[in-house]
């Protein structure tokens, strides 16, 4: 499976924006803790105890995000000097999140679209595929609104890393491969693993604590290994409980199952509390603590995390939710579940967590993902002499009028040419079938009807083609804009309407008919 054919990470900011607008929980909360599904919570995350105040969220340090220090920040924010390398753990006052979240989403789209700067030496992304665009969207958006963070490099740790002496991490983030002796775990190796729905199947058991003690004599190195086995043991324990909830037969006795039910294991996994050293921020200047919960005995905390309708995220959800329940984390929790309508109908994991379903943007055309694949195959070679220059773009188009004058006629010509090429309508060449289903919604029809009835006089649409298989050729915005050019050209020929008269309408097409707007999605 090509992990880069889609971009599920965009659903994190998209889900947060949607949740803020549509969830009743978001209207009755003071603080929001945003985490990732591939995390294990070891202890309570109380924002004001971590040092968060209104206007200064707390976040974990992501030092590898070098785009803060180079041309990437200069291109994508007016305030590169305010760029904080943060992510993973985010503890926000709800008022700050409401102001910031839409910009987080728009900046994610912007960075994801900037393929010219996906290189590892610019982003720090080891895959070099724009995979961490959402992270850059986060702190570029924060820089735009002047939101600075209290940065902590102790609260979260990757299994396989060794904690600093005296530090008690309260979050494990298993985003990277890790190993203990000859045993290892890599979440990407289980991308299509339906382990949640396979009775009594667990991930390979890690070494026991006694074996770890024999393996490593250095106390601090040993602590790191203990964190690694704790991570996978928590996930496996959660899977056992989920299998029981799925009415699976009781698993046969094994040494490993006996260990997971032992008092020794319960002692090892009891909630951890951040030590004073753990709470120390990276900044040198200590700010006076302001209790934004003043006047409220118990400010309300809500934890959110983002997933998709896939088995890959389901087993992560099981581990995450089990750790949440064990950790003593105050407040409620919501899974932001992003799915297409088709995937949602087939989805089996509705009961894995308290859930708020949000529209999926994984195939959003502004990100250029899993959509206009004709740029990469024979379609481009057939219809342009420069297939290497084919950009997967659409939706919002901002163009100088001189460029548009040169380009518009060729746009129309190429549309007619591709439309006539029925031999290459197949989805494996254009990949528009799924997108068409997405856009063939009441919203799309309403937008078309509104455009037809209010934006232009009815006669301007007398020659407009009807909805049909033309959707299988171009994206929604390009289609309507192209149809407009066709009608405008014909009407101009018949009525001598000047381009100056038509210009305002053209502006409306390019901006108002953007394929995905925040008001539409959210």
UniProtKB/TrEMBL annotation:
Ranges where the Hydroxyproline O-arabinosyltransferase-like domain occurs: 5-174
Subcellular location(s) of the protein: Membrane
GO MF term (any one): glycosyltransferase activity
Alphabetical list of InterPro entries matching this protein: HPAT-like (IPR056508), HPAT/SRGT1-like (IPR044845)
Pfam families: HPAT (PF23452)
Keyword ATP-binding: no
Record flagged with keyword tRNA-binding: no
Residues annotated as transmembrane: 470-490, 502-518
Membrane topology of the entry: Single-pass membrane protein
Keyword annotations of the record: Glycosyltransferase, Membrane, Transferase, Transmembrane, Transmembrane helix
GO cellular component: membrane
PANTHER family recorded: PEPTIDYL SERINE ALPHA-GALACTOSYLTRANSFERASE
UniProt name for this protein: Hydroxyproline O-arabinosyltransferase-like domain-containing protein
Lineage start: Eukaryota, Viridiplantae, Streptophyta, Embryophyta, Tracheophyta
């Amino acid at each position: 499976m090509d992990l880069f054919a889609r971009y599920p990470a965009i659903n994190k900011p998209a889900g947060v924006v949607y949740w803020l607008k549509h969830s009743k929980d978001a209207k009755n909360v003071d603080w929001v803790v945003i985490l990732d599904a591939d995390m294990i919570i070891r202890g309570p995350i109380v924002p004001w105890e971590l040092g968060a105040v209104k206007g200064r969220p707390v976040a974990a340090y992501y030092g590898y995000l070098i785009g803060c220090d180079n041309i990437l920040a200069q291109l994508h924010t007016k305030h590169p000097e305010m760029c904080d390398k943060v992510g993973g753990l985010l503890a926000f006052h709800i008022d700050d999140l409401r102001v910031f979240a839409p910009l987080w989403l728009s900046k994610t789209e912007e960075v994801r679209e900037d393929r010219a700067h996906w290189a590892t030496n610019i982003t720090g992304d080891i895959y070099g595929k724009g995979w961490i665009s959402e992270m850059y969207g986060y702190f570029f958006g924060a820089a735009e609104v002047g939101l600075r963070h209290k940065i902590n490099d102790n609260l979260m740790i990757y299994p396989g890393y060794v904690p600093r002496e005296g530090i008690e991490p309260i979050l494990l983030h298993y985003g990277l491969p890790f190993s203990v002796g000859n045993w290892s775990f890599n979440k990407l190796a289980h991308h299509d693993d339906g382990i949640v729905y396979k009775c009594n199947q667990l991930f390979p058991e890690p070494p026991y604590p006694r074996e770890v003690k024999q393996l490593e004599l250095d106390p601090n190195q040993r602590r790191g290994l203990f964190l690694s086995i704790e991570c996978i043991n928590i996930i496996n324990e959660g899977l056992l409980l989920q299998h029981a909830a799925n009415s699976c037969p009781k698993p046969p006795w094994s040494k490993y199952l006996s260990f997971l039910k032992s008092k020794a294991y319960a002692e090892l996994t009891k909630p951890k509390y951040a030590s004073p050293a753990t709470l120390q921020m990276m900044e040198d200047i200590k700010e006076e603590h302001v209790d934004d919960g003043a006047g409220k005995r118990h400010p309300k905390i809500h934890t959110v995390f983002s997933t998709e309708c896939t088995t890959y995220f389901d087993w992560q959800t099981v581990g995450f939710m089990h750790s949440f329940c064990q950790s003593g984390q105050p407040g409620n929790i919501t899974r932001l579940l992003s799915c297409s309508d088709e995937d949602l109908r087939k989805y089996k994991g509705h009961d894995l967590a308290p859930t708020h379903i949000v529209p999926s943007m994984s195939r959003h055309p502004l990100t250029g993902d899993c959509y206009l694949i004709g740029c990469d195959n024979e379609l481009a070679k057939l219809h342009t002499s420069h297939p290497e220059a084919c950009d997967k773009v659409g939706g919002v188009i901002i163009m100088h009028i001189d460029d548009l004058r040169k380009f518009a006629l060729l746009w129309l010509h190429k549309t007619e040419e591709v439309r006539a090429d029925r031999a290459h309508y197949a989805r494996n060449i254009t990949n528009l079938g799924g997108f068409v289903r997405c856009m063939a919604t009441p919203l799309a029809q309403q937008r078309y009807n509104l455009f037809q009835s209010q934006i232009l006089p009815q006669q301007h649409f007398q020659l407009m083609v009807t909805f049909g298989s033309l959707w299988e050729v171009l994206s929604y915005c390009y289609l309507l804009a192209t149809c407009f050019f066709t009608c405008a050209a014909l009407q101009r020929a018949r009525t001598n309407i000047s381009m100056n008269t038509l210009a305002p309408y053209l502006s409306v097409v390019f901006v108002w008919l953007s394929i995905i707007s925040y008001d539409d999605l959210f």
